[in-house]
Amino acid sequence: MLKDSFKIFLIALCYLSFFLVPPSRAENFILNSSFEDTLENKNPVASKDADGIKYWMRWLHQNNERSDIAAHTGKYSFKNWESGGIYQNFAAPIEKGKTYRISCYMYTPTSDRLKGGSYEIIKLEWLDTNGVVMGPDTVQSPHFDSNMPADTWHLISVQGSAPEKAVNGRAVLEFIPSQGGSGAIFCDDVEVEVLGGEGGQLTVSKEEIKKEEVVKEEVVNEKEDETIDWQW
Ligand SMILES: [Ca+2]
């Protein structure tokens, strides 16, 4: 009897440990993802970028900047309030047909709230061997617009498959203005993850785990082709 109880205890322990093991973090292919680092030798004259945000390229500098007014993590974020944006190429490994996801936290404060039809998007672009953007393969995230509640960081993301001949991906944060629009958007913690295939991840909520416990036997066959990394 005691032996049986011990067995049950061990099984329960194994079962619990399965759910308690911390999930492994997927590798982020974006450098300086939190906008905390600047170039050691800023050269505003040559680069025309007084902010010198390390590993990133800005365009229309007069409409955006590295800012310490708001941050999701650390002290700084990327602030934009008019046309322009920032981008970083990522090298990968880029494999045709694999899915890549870019995510970023976005925020607008009550004190400088986004108004009108302006919005921010993340674009996933692909570059060929000549460094040229393969336009038709670009995918865009949903808009971060004035309907988003203020003073809260919202996670926005976009994902797409690498097309044939792509050698680099590019994560782009772009502010799209509208006439009469106003306010600022802050972006922080940009991440690029590889989904699917080896080392891929599927995010599964606790509710889904409960569901799976109930229909465990039915799910077994469907799960043969999936790689699931529990995460919450
Ligand atoms: Ca930051």
Low-confidence parts lasting 5 or more residues at pLDDT below 50? Answer: 16-23, 197-232
What is the count of β-strands? 10
The major beta sheet can be summarized as: 5 strands, antiparallel
What is the domain tally?
Answer: 1
CATH fold type:
Jelly Rolls
What does this 3D model show about the protein?
- The protein is an alpha+beta fold.
- The protein has one domain (25-211): Jelly Rolls.
- The protein has helices at residues 2-20, 44-47, 206-214, 216-222, and strands spanning 57-59, 64-67, 77-80, 84-90, 99-107, 119-127, 139-140, 154-161, 168-176, 185-195.
- The strands form two sheets. The protein has a five-stranded antiparallel β-sheet, with no helix packed on it.
- The site of calcium ion (CA) has 10 residues, from loops.
- Residues 34-36, 71-74, 76-77, 188 line the site of calcium ion.
Would you kindly provide a brief summary of this structure?
This protein has 232 residues and is α+β, with helices and mostly antiparallel strands.
Helices and strands in order:
Layout: H1 2-20, H2 44-47, E1 57-59, E2 64-67, E3 77-80, E4 84-90, E5 99-107, E6 119-127, E7 139-140, E8 154-161, E9 168-176, E10 185-195, H3 206-214, H4 216-222
Antiparallel strand pairs: 1-4, 2-3, 3-10, 4-9, 5-8, 5-10, 6-7, 6-9
This protein binds calcium ion.
Calcium ion binds next to loops.
